[in-house]
Amino acid sequence: MKIAVFAGDGIGPEVTREAVRVLEALDLPGLVLFEGDVGGIAYKRHGHPLPAETLQIARACDAILFGAVGDPDCDNLERHLRPEQAILGLRKELGLFANLRPAKVFAGLEDASALRPEVASQIDLLIVRELNGDVYFGEKGIRTLPDGRRQGWDMMSYAEDEVRRIAHVAFRAAMGRGKKLCSVDKANVLETSQVWRDVMIEVARDYPEVELSHMYVDNAAMQLVRNPGQFDVVVTGNLFGDILSDQASMCVGSIGLLASASLSDGKMGLYEPIHGSAPDIAGKGLANPMATILSAAMLLRHSLGLEAQAAQIEAAVAKALADGIRGGDLGGSQGTAAIGDAVLERL
Ligand code: NAD
Ligand code: IPM
Ligand code: MN
Prior knowledge:
Blueprint: E1 2-8, H1 12-25, E2 32-35, H2 40-46, H3 52-60, E3 63-68, H4 84-93, E4 98-104, H5 117-120, E5 124-130, E6 140-144, E7 150-154, H6 160-175, E8 180-185, H7 191-204, E9 211-216, H8 217-226, E10 233-236, H9 238-252, E11 259-263, E12 269-273, H10 290-302, H11 307-322, H12 336-346
Helix pairs in contact: 1-10, 1-12, 6-7, 8-9, 10-11, 11-12
Bound molecules: nicotinamide-adenine-dinucleotide (NAD), 3-isopropylmalic acid (IPM) and manganese (II) ion.
The site of nicotinamide-adenine-dinucleotide (NAD) has 22 residues, from helix 4.
């Protein structure tokens, strides 16, 4: 069981350290960890945010535990050298097209939600975000128009096979949950979304037990705060999924709680918190590591088939929260290491 650990920038190393402590505490026979540089730190050390050595480590491993990338010092580099290219490059190079972002309210945390407790307590949803296509990976550029104005442009597209494979992931996920799937698009305006919706309807024929609905993304953003309990599985494209999952995090309490799995057709997966490098709190020991610890649990479940150990980690996090352990993001005062200690004690 080889796991690549790519901690990255900002709070990435701080939160990853706690997740690694949790993995090591499980004493899994045959578990070996391999570290690699990604993001701004990799650019500074090797001249590239995703060095060839790092990609080689990734390919040689069964799964990747990823912290975060992003460094304000690098925001003006040419785009292909920016830290964010490390995560985009890994997703593309390894064919990690299916991003699972579960959001569920932990018992005792209803009051931490940005929503009223009785609304928040209903949340138990899974966002299935497509991760290899959309406007993220289309051609893009900045050009000068004949009249001298600068114009930025980004090509948005989805081919039917790209939609079909994420549709199957989402329908299968729905089969394993409440059998409700809501596809989120902008088919009233975008042709990309029209193809998306048409393919969702086609694939639905293979899953007669799943109730498929469609929602425009603007309405979905509104419904997510009005009545998030209506959602079971949500499937959407790369850009909409990015935005809606950050929003979902505040519905359950904090972005420091939401984990994710990025999966390919095989067993290879990348596991990371949905948050970024949080430069505003980096280096201060203030970040909540729970999202990363929960990502390590998803790693055990999806890439290593260790369901019991995954559930054990999730139970330890839930117990810590139920016992009142709170980072600053949840209005508490526990720091990164103290939260890690609290989870370890309960493991
Ligand atoms: P962010 O998620 O890093 O931070 C947003 C806000 O949430 C900040 O106030 C931050 O302090 C807070 N926050 C985030 N994670 C937290 C945690 N674990 N505990 C407590 N508070 C937390 O988003 P941003 O500020 O828009 O982006 C910062 C950098 O991260 C950018 O360079 C961006 O491109 C990058 N980014 C990377 C990833 C990734 O690596 N997958 C994801 C998102 C953003
Ligand atoms: C995420 C992040 C990334 C994305 C960035 C850092 C490229 O926001 O994982 O949610 O947009 O996918
Ligand atoms: Mn994001």
